[in-house]
Amino acid sequence: MLIFLTILLILFNAIYWTIVCKRLLLKYGYTEEYASSWSCWGFFFGPLAFIMAFTKPEVRNAEDISSKSDEIEKTIEKYRQLYESGVITEKDFEAYKEKLMGR
Q1: Backbone angles phi, psi at 31, to 5 degrees
Q2: Number of C-alpha atoms within 13 angstroms, CB side, residue 21?
Q3: 49, 35 in Cβ contact below 8 A?
Q4: Measuring CA to CA, how many Å separate 66 from each of 30, 73, 79?
């Protein structure tokens, strides 16, 4: 009976680390396929795999980055139109542009 409980505890522990590693990598933005492959590491290596997964950098979504740059370009174009129509000065236009570019 003790051997059965020990094996059950080891399996429960392995399944726990499998789920934790997979969810962590999904939270960081990795694909389902990549996170699933790491769940195998979690099953066999437990806390060590979790530490390795925890230290991986977050993946930035390329669509988010491109949509933000598109938004910045549209805003700069609006300020350019205001500058060309004489509503704001060149100094104001350059200041807005620098602010949007994050400089």
Answers
A1: -70, 160
A2: 27
A3: no
A4: 18, 10, 20
- Cβ partners under 8 Å of residue 23, min gap 6: 35
Question: Which pair of structure tokens corresponds to residue 59?
Answer: 């993946």
Residue 61, phi-psi category: left (phi > 0), alpha (psi -120 to 50), beta (remainder): beta
For the chain (103 residues), the mean pLDDT of every run of 10, in chain order, is: 90 88 85 81 83 80 62 86 88 85 66
Phi-psi domain of 29 (left: phi exceeds 0; alpha: psi -120 through 50; beta: other)? left
Q: What are the extents of the domains in the chain?
A: 2-54, 62-101
CA distance 61 to 18: 25
Token pair listed for 27: 């939270």
Place of tokens 């066999």: 44
pTM above 0.70, yes or no: no
The one-letter code for the residue type at 49 is: A
